[in-house]
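so the lab meeting is tmrw and i was supposed to have these ready like two days ago... anyway. pasting both below. for each one the top line is the aa sequence and the line under it is the structure tokens. i havent really looked at them closely yet so no promises
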Amino acid sequence: MKTFKLTGFLSVLSVFALALTSCEEFHGPDVTQNPELSGFEEIELSGDLQVQISKGAFEVVLDGPLNDVSDYQFSISGDRLEGKYRHPNRTHDQISISITLPEITYIKMSGKGHTNITGFEDGGNRDMKIKLEGDQFFDAEVDCRDLELKTSGKNDIYLSGQCETADVKISGKTDVEAFDFSIQDCDINLSGQNEVHVTVTAKLTGALSGKSKLVYDGNPAIVAVNVDGGSHINQK
């Protein structure tokens, strides 16, 4: 009986070790790739990604398991850099992507990921569009003239910087911390279960529905926000 139990235990260990080896062989060793890509100011990425976006001369660097990095493909369409997996239905480990570019005006992230944008809190007169879909952690430092922010799914968003006008449309379950992002005129529409903290200095308009919470700072002269359902608005 003891021999049988020991043999069974060793068999389980063998299967477990084989599974670990197969997993490593499937994804491969960690590698770094540096594709030569330039001439873009818009970014659209999908997948389970850790993304760092910085201001500077063009450079794109990928880090992660060989098979996952090799399966991730980039293309440039007009001013837009697009990245996605060739085989999105396969199981992929998370990969890291570092993108450096002189200017950014648009970013769209879909899937599950963590994105950090630095270096654009520079007084720039750019228009900026941000679109998030899925399960995203998004942290951005950016100055702009007009901001368009649209999200769906479950997102955590942190913004610092400033803009003149902002058009914000959020659905699903999203938390936005933007007390450090100063907006002159903001139109905000929340649906679902969201909590948004924002600083507005002149005019705040919009609509809340579902179970959303809006907290604003900045003492705007005009506040005209329609509130339905279990939503509410408060001044900080």
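ok protien two:
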Amino acid sequence: MALCLALICLFFVTPGLALYDFEGIPLDIASQGEVAGSIYSAGTYGLTEPPVACSFTLPGEPVWAEVYTGVWGGTEKYSGTAEISINSLKIFKYSLYGEQDMNENVYCTGHGVYWISQDATDLLHSGENRVVVNTSRGESGSRMDGRVYAVFVVAAVGDNSGYITQYWIAEGNENLHGEGWSGSNPTVHDTSSYTFSGADLTGMQSAELTTVLLAGTRYQPDYMTFNSNDLGQPETDTSHYPEGATDIGDEICFDAEGGSGTESRYVDVESFDVTDYVKDVNTVVFERGRDSNGDGVIDPSSAISEGEDYIHPCLAVLSVKKKKASLLQDMGIAGITTANMYAGATGTLTAEVRNYGENTGSQAVVAFYVDGEKIGTATADTGSSGVGYAVIEWAATGGEHEISAKLESPADSVSSNDEYSLACNIEDLPDLSLKVSSPVSAESGEAAVKQSPSFFMIPVLGAAGAAAVWGRRKKPGKIMAATLVCMLVLCPVLVQPSFAAGLEYREYVLPVEVLNEGGAVDPGVSLTVYLDGEKAAYTTLEDGIDGGDSESVEISIFTTPGSHKVRIVVDEEGSVDELDEGNNSFEAVYEFP
């Protein structure tokens, strides 16, 4: 299969855009670099009525700082506001829209769990600082719960300790959950991870990993590993935990490595000594639980729970403290992403530039090459975060190409990371469509009967704008795709879900074939199933699809016997630019046996 060897994006979202995703927004780099000092953190811990104040002292001036705020919406259906005041110098106000949220630097997932990221580099200072967070809880017209999980401040601060600290801050909002927490269909999201790259261990004295988890519950075990090593001490209470289990998200902060910690309802901040485990490339993995009894299921509801119902990893901070003569500037190119790379289209190339050394806020000039020929330069502003993006357009031509990005300036101490290349094969636009067979009872094998269209006349109400995305937020090179698509909104009249008394949910198998009559499509294309207007299942195609080929999948759905409207959409996010997007959905009403 001819596939681009990097993830291909077809359209960019406006930089800074974040969109709600029930399953979660994976952690991604927010800041990295080195400081002649240390990483400082402070916070308030535990679900609390607003306003919430966090007062703390910094030993020096920050070269980078961020204020994070966790807010509980109560449900993704409600909206409200949050205000963040930093040292009374500036107030940032966010309108929180739940499942419709598109705010800059707001990560909303699950049933209304918000994680807000606010740059505070120029607003914090050496000495006393104060952050106050308020929400619309209790205000007229606001239905959002509005309680505050935590206010958490992270800052890279210069000091006279004689140490240099290399650091990475990854932010997001993953929703790890078991069955029954995603609408009417029991989807599962058990693990998530993030990889920190480019560690310089010369003169290393120690390494520490700090994490923030929201919405965890005591007596429901969860786990974390760092480079495949389990973190935290196993629980000794075998009346509540499986043997050897850890409970990082136990609603007590700073107790995972021993000690009494701090009571903190639905919030868990932990710091782990990872000196013995750290390498040049480091991966942290968050696990909702483990299958302790070997039955193939992580069951949170058994007498001795095997895992969390749900838990949200929102932040991971890795810091490596070193004895080093002086700070050196070291910028490198961490990767290249492409967008709209089809024959005859104007494609976009994005190079991600990271600062692995002293955080100088420098701009980097990046040169782009296709098959060894320079096509232009672009500037990346790394700012105080140490992460920036250089973007350039290219009139894509068909065939195999090598795309490269080279750092032209500034000159730095390490040249080995100044260039990045990828190979890709550029083809014609794809054209995805669906072929759907009748749902079949998983128990009896009996097929559902497709009903005549005359039975369920569905009037067209009009067109509505739908925003869709696979990636996220304030890093254009990491945002996979999005477009605003005009789509028909249909009213399913005369079709009523069969929720009669006495009917039980049953499992049905829905056979779906995804066809591609155009150019090749990379792995990761989504399939979304709606049942009676509610999202019932979501999956992605692990393999790409060549032109003229297809891929078949069987999707499990759970509902009651009777008449149900089924709607299936391929690439609902709009991540694939196509010849014809009008054939991406299928809709029918079936009588389920």
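from a quick look at the 2nd one: The radius of gyration is 25 Å. Confidence is low (pLDDT under 50) at residues 1-16, 454-473, 475-501. will dig more after coffe
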